[in-house]
């Protein structure tokens, strides 16, 4: 009896060690696997569960199935909460040493957490094999590179500093929709006119969209260098320029709908512009997909322009895919990443999602008018990283700052927000 | 020896799975959680450096955390007060000899059968912060719309979006949901008082008020205590209702320790999240342990 027990204990212990190995990951195995020879299932984890995002993913899977008939795509999407639901599920799985074959993450600082935790593979070799370094813009490659290594393959590029406006509302207030304001003061003057005409000038929703508005105002008020400096310590959060920026944000908030906190996500705020209940909405260019899906015509029903004061700057974020350490099917994962990075995959995906391809060789001839303009801007503008979408700072920093911005929505205490933002920066900046 | 094993053996076998499961999934996890709360694991990067109670002192000194504790206090007071008042009132009304008691009992008890998440979705709509007098007011829904249409427009308010008292509005749906339960407790309490006692008091010349004051209320106090314990610890742990009503977990106005723990956890700040968890556990223990001691002493008597 006793012997059998000890045997059992031994087997259990062995099982634990093996599981430990699996979790730790065997990085050499993935390097030798050729994606062309890979078979089996490829489990891909995203938060693209519905709407234009789901449609984009489906288009991508179409290309993948054509390129790799020997592989089956296993959709592990988790819906809800702009990705926060998915991220908590993912964190638990990675911690348990049970990673998917590939998962979605925002390029930039958000990826840093996974790199620090030693959870994702270095893909520099993959970039070399597929000649991706020359196909992606250099600015983007710079933002993906950490200590000389690249850890993810971007599928698309979004712009976060775009104002969406209702043409009719602007005309009613006596403004020319084709000539948007070029700085914050001019924009506020326009908003005064809209307010006088009886419409809400600016629509905004809950906490994260307020953070995005705050980010746009910071960028407009401080300029791209000043804005970048906030994240690497070169701009002093306690400086007078930042005070001015926060004052401007306070002013912008005074033009917004009072029920902002109860709007469930960005879409209801954009809907206010579509319905003519509000004039402007600052939102990323995923709003373009919403306008298009709802049958609105660019230039007739709605118009768009870079947030006043940020012309010539592209506030960027990108979705990207990784190869987790210990992925069950690394060869299949590489096949998936090849499709993601390929010109064909990027065209299929971005056409539907409303974003622009990260791969410059992708065919964009039949993309929408907005997307064409974004492609042009991305090629010539200064590129900065978005705060609200995990590109500029790690998640913990963003969380603390979001709390401070959410608090400011209630008490409107400029010095208070500035103090907390400064102490948060001091806590996280390297 | 064998004989004795026969008496307790089956019992132990029967209970062993429960004991093991509770041991692992409750007590061991509490210990593990406490261990994490003592480390400096503030990012996804694994770290096991012990920093003692630093996370606790930092949290308690953090104005945001103090704000969440303050919110929790307001929430608990309003939630407790509301359920006790309504629960008692309904129980007292039903206790009067009248028709249709069964019907009303079910009506009042019904909300309890709905989960906080499901009712939260409806209450999000009911507690719309937009007032008809504000710009865009024609879009408003729920209570503000109702108040306006019955001519009580001046009573409209911003509900949970108020920075200071917003959290009290979250207690409204909670009261709606659990008053029926407190009513059931009180009703059982009322029924437990023998009619002979009331009659004896009436024969002695008690007024109705004195009857309640000196005969009935004292006998209801154990019921009252259980109600306070049950509602109180539910209030401390309240998370799902807030998450369902407020779209963004990181909304400062209605931040309580439970939602703050979630935000910290999503941000990979495992040490702080674990510390908040321990603080919540201690708060609940402060409520529950005296009650457990009281009941165990009462049972011994």
Automatic annotation (TrEMBL), chain A:
Give its localization.
Cell envelope
Species annotation = Arthrobacter stackebrandtii
Superkingdom per UniProt: Bacteria
One Pfam match, given by its short name, reads SBP_bac_1
Q: Which UniProt keywords apply?
A: Signal, Transport
Q: Does the keyword Cell cycle apply?
A: no
Main function: Part of a binding-protein-dependent transport system for a sugar.
The UniProt entry's sequence similarity note says:
Belongs to the bacterial solute-binding protein 1 family.
Q: Does the keyword Lipid metabolism apply?
A: no
This chain's protein is named Probable sugar-binding periplasmic protein
The residues the entry assigns to the signal sequence are 1-19
SUPFAM superfamilies, A to Z: Periplasmic binding protein-like II
Automatic annotation (TrEMBL), chain B:
Keywords assigned by UniProt, alphabetized: Cell membrane, Membrane, Transmembrane, Transmembrane helix, Transport
Can you say what this protein is called?
Glucose/mannose transport system permease protein
Question: Which domain of life does the UniProt lineage start with?
Answer: Bacteria
Cited SUPFAM superfamilies: MetI-like
Q: What is its main location?
A: membrane
- Gene3D superfamilies (UniProt xref): MetI-like (1.10.3720.10)
Membrane topology listed for this record: Multi-pass membrane protein
Residue stretches making up the ABC transmembrane type-1 domain: 69-291
Q: Where in the cell is it found?
A: Cell membrane
Question: Matching InterPro entries, A to Z?
Answer: ABC_transporter_permease, MetI-like, MetI-like_sf
Similarity field: Belongs to the binding-protein-dependent transport system permease family.
Q: Report the transmembrane regions from the record.
A: 12-31, 69-94, 106-126, 165-190, 211-231, 270-294
A Pfam family in this protein? Answer: BPD_transp_1
């Amino acid at each position: 009896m006793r012997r059998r027990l000890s045997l059992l204990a031994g087997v259990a212990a062995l099982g634990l060690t093996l599981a430990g190995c699996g979790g730790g990951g065997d990085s050499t195995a993935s390097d030798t696997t050729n994606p062309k020879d890979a078979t089996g299932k490829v489990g891909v984890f995203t938060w693209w569960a519905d709407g234009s995002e789901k449609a984009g993913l489906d288009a991508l899977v179409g290309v993948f199935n054509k390129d790799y008939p020997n592989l089956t795509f296993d959709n592990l999407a988790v819906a809800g909460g702009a990705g926060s639901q998915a991220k908590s599920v993912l964190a638990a799985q990675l911690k348990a040493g049970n990673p998917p074959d590939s998962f979605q993450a925002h390029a930039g600082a958000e990826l840093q957490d996974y790199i620090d935790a030693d959870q994702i593979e270095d893909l520099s070799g993959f970039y070399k094999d597929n000649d991706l370094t020359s196909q992606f813009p250099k600015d983007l490659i710079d933002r993906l590179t950490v200590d000389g290594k690249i850890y993810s393959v971007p599928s698309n590029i979004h712009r976060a500093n775009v104002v969406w406006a209702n043409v009719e509302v602007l005309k009613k207030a006596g403004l020319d929709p084709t000539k948007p304001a070029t700085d914050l003061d001019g924009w506020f003057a326009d908003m005064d006119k809209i307010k006088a005409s009886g419409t809400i000038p600016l629509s905004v929703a809950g906490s994260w969209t307020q953070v995005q508005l705050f980010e746009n105002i910071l960028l407009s008020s401080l300029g791209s260098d000043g804005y970048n400096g906030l994240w690497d310590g070169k701009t002093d959060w306690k400086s007078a320029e930042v005070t001015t920026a926060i004052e401007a944000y306070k002013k912008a908030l005074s033009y917004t709908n009072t029920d902002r906190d109860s709007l469930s996500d960005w879409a209801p705020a954009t809907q206010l512009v579509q319905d003519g209940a509000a004039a402007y909405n600052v939102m990323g260019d995923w709003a373009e997909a919403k306008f298009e899906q709802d049958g609105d015509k660019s230039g007739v029903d709605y118009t768009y322009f870079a947030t006043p004061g940020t012309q010539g700057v592209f506030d960027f974020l990108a979705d990207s895919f990784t190869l987790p350490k210990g992925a069950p099917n690394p060869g299949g994962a590489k096949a998936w990443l090849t499709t993601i990075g390929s010109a064909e995959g990027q065209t299929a995906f971005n056409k539907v999602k409303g974003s622009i391809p990260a791969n410059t060789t992708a065919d964009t001839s039949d993309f929408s008018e907005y997307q064409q303009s974004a492609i042009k801007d991305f090629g010539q503008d200064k590129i900065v990283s978005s705060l609200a979408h995990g590109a500029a700072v790690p998640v913990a920093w963003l969380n603390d700052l979001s709390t401070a911005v959410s608090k400011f929505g209630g008490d409107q205490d400029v010095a208070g927000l500035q103090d907390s933002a400064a102490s948060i920066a001091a806590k996280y900046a390297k | 020896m064998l004989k004795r094993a026969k008496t307790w053996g089956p019992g132990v076998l029967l209970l062993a799975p429960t004991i093991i499961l509770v041991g692992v999934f409750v007590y061991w996890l509490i210990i593990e959680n406490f261990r994490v709360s003592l480390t400096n694991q503030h990012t996804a990067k694994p770290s096991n450096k012990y920093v003692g109670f630093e996370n606790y002192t930092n949290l308690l000194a953090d104005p945001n955390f103090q704000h969440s504790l303050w919110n929790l206090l307001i929430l608990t007071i309003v939630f407790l007060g509301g359920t006790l008042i309504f629960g008692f009132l309904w129980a007292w009304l039903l206790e009067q000899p009248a028709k249709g008691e069964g019907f009303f009992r079910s009506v009042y008890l019904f909300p309890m059968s709905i989960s906080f998440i499901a009712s939260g979705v409806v209450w999000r709509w009911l507690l719309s912060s937009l007032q008809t007098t504000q710009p865009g007011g024609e879009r408003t829904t729920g209570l503000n719309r109702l108040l306006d249409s019955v001519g009580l427009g001046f009573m409209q308010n911003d509900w949970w979006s108020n920075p200071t008292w917003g959290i009290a509005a979250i207690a409204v749906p909670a009261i709606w949901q659990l008053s029926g339960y407190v009513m059931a407790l009180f009703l059982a309490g009322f029924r437990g008082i023998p009619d002979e006692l009331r009659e004896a008091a009436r024969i002695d010349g008690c007024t109705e008020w004195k009857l309640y004051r000196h005969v009935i209320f004292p006998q209801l106090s154990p019921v009252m205590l259980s109600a306070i314990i049950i509602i109180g610890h539910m209030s401390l742990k309240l998370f799902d209702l807030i998450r369902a009503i407020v779209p963004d977990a990181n909304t400062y106005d209605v931040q309580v320790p439970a939602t703050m723990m979630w935000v910290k956890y999503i941000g990979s700040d495992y040490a702080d999240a674990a510390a908040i968890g321990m603080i919540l556990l201690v708060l609940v223990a402060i409520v529950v342990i005296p009650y457990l001691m009281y009941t165990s002493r009462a049972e011994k008597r």
